[in-house]
Amino acid sequence: MTALSLIIETGMPTAGHGDAQEAASGEGPVKVLPDDTVSRIASRCNVSEGALLAANPSIDGSSDLQIGATLRLRPATGQGLADCLNHLGR
Description:
Elements: H1 3-10, E1 30-31, H2 38-45, H3 49-55, E2 70-71, H4 81-89
Antiparallel strand pairs: 1-2
């Protein structure tokens, strides 16, 4: 039995050719999908909205999201705590 026939027989969902890969529990990056908001991405990826915004300083809110853009879920290693807190304070 091939893997494809096993998937078809068991009814397991398969990703379509154009489906974006989702980040699992705080691992990134993640692609912005149609109708995404900061809240929806944070919920889907199991991170806080604040952490998502801090990791992506060019994003101030959902209106800044662009379909197909890639977002980090964690701050870049070179980004300091002061930069993260400054973004959250805006």
